[in-house]
Design goal:
Layout (H helix, E strand, L loop, with lengths): L11 H11 L3 H7 L5 H9 L6 H12 L4 H10 L1
Length: about 80
Amino acid sequence: MGDDVDLSAVSPRAWRLLRVAAGYEQRGVEREIDGLLQAHVSMLESGSRGLSGDRRRLLFELYAAELSAEQVRVLVRHF
């Protein structure tokens, strides 16, 4: 699923919904991905700043591992 998603086009709201649906708090993400701080997640979700493509991919893979392909598809396409 993740390979066909343009992560630069995922909305801030969809990023937040993916995180929540996957069961992560922002601090939890910080513990899971080295070098990614809670502040980075917060800025991505508020739309005030993006992440590098590599970091976005890691974050997406973390969330997608906890969700079905259909859940990911719905959140990315509709939000």
